[in-house]
Automatic annotation (TrEMBL):
This is WXG100 family type VII secretion target. It comes from Mycobacteroides franklinii. Residues 98-134, 383-403 are annotated as: Disordered.
Length: 403
């Protein structure tokens, strides 16, 4: 852009209208966080430690996205107001606005008609989908079936006659419904991609406006737009590490469950030597006079309770992953403040502790290690995002005082 003022008022109004459309999309991103970004059900056992942090994170994220949406909307509104101010001066003088010498009236309110009416909205482009991830229940039985099919058959047989799944009930009390961790991670990743898409769209629209608007206000707007665009785009790498650390936690939970299943199998083998659940029923019927469903349920429940108590000793590794999620949530809420207070090494230490024996050889661990640097690098852009809408100027000559 050069120093000389010039403007196509219809293009500028269309630009402003497009930015307002973008603000409406940001409202949908915020709505996704409001409706889906908090815990729903099944946050028991180890997961109960994360319920409060995620409820707080949802509130703070919603508030932040609301500020971004408001700044974007007010910016679009200001661009339209400027276009109408320029148009009104053109109508009064009958000359191109660049040659006008008389002062212009204020422009702090939107004016209908003229530039706004004729303007074609700038396109927001293909913004990311914001459909809410489906709520699911953790499938413990399938993991058990992979390790010991006959134990899963036993659980299924008991559930058919009693309506109760000893396996699901026991493991949910220990770790919670970890499908919720996957769901909430997907919500944050979607929200981050939505914010990033909006940032890229704003940058694209700003580039489109360059040939239609020049001067001090236009130059000032470029700097403002860049800060807002980068601030929006910074949400993607930040939300991605939320998903990554939750994937690590889910991976550790599944690993714990497989270990516990091995313990269950050993306990059951101490009862009878069997290869299938049907064999177990036959042997039990011979061993005791009344080997009915009630006894089956009671004994399996007793065995699972014993294993549950022993499994408490195995949760340390999973606890480290829970602690990692807490640290990443704290980082996500205010990256710059976290890094200033605790430093990058604190975050890296949490990652190292969480990966532990699983190490970076696991898929989830590799992805987290890969994505974390980008999240740290995004902190300055996150911090620099403007909190208010763009102001095109002050007094009687808005194009003379961009700020």
């Amino acid at each position: 852009m050069g120093e000389k003022f010039s403007v196509n008022v219809e293009e500028l109004a269309g630009f402003g209208a497009g930015v307002e459309d973008l603000a409406a999309y940001l409202g949908k991103v915020r709505a996704l966080v409001d409706s889906e970004g908090g815990p729903k059900d099944g946050w028991d056992g180890l997961m109960s430690q994360l319920k409060g942090p995620f409820e707080a994170a949802k509130t703070k994220t919603s508030e932040r996205y609301d500020k971004r949406q408001t700044a974007t909307y007010m910016t679009g509104n200001e661009l339209i107001s400027l276009a109408n101010t320029y148009k009104e001066q053109e109508n009064k003088t009958g000359a191109r606005i660049r040659a006008a010498a008389s002062p212009l009236p204020g422009h702090d309110s939107r004016r209908d008609g003229d530039a706004t009416t004729a303007a074609k909205h700038y396109s927001t482009g293909d913004t990311p989908d914001l459909a809410a991830p489906k709520h699911e229940e953790a499938d413990v039985v399938s993991i058990v079936r992979d390790k010991a099919a006959w134990v899963a058959d036993a659980d299924e047989a008991i559930q058919k006659v009693s309506g109760w799944s000893p396996i699901n009930d026991t493991f949910e009390k220990l770790v919670g419904n970890w499908a919720e961790l996957t769901r909430i991670g997907n919500v944050y990743e979607k929200a981050g991609k939505g914010m990033e898409g909006a940032g890229k769209s704003l940058a694209s629209m700003t580039e489109q406006s360059r040939s239609h608007w020049d001067g001090k206000s236009a130059q000032a707007f470029e700097g403002y737009s860049e800060d807002l665009s980068k601030g929006l785009e910074a949400e993607a790498p930040l939300t991605k590490v939320i998903k990554d650390c939750l994937d690590v936690l889910v991976e550790q939970i599944k690993k714990l469950i497989k270990t516990i299943v091995d313990m269950v199998v050993e306990k059951l083998k101490q009862e009878v030597q069997i290869d299938s659940w049907k064999d177990a029923l036959k042997v039990l019927a011979k061993k005791i006079p009344i080997a009915g469903t009630a006894w089956q349920v009671e004994r399996l429940a007793m065995i699972l309770k014993e294993v549950f108590q022993e499994a408490q000793k195995l949760v340390d590794e999973v606890q480290k992953a829970v602690d990692l999620v807490k640290s990443v949530i704290e980082f996500f809420e205010d990256p710059a403040a976290y890094l200033e207070k605790k430093g990058k090494d604190s975050l890296n230490k949490s990652v190292d502790n969480a990966l532990g024996k699983a190490g970076v050889s696991s898929d989830a661990g590799k992805q987290l290690v890969k994505d974390l640097p980008a999240a740290v690098l995004a902190a300055p852009d996150f911090q620099a995002a403007p909190g208010d809408g763009y102001s095109g100027g002050a007094g009687g000559a808005p194009w003379e005082d961009g700020k």
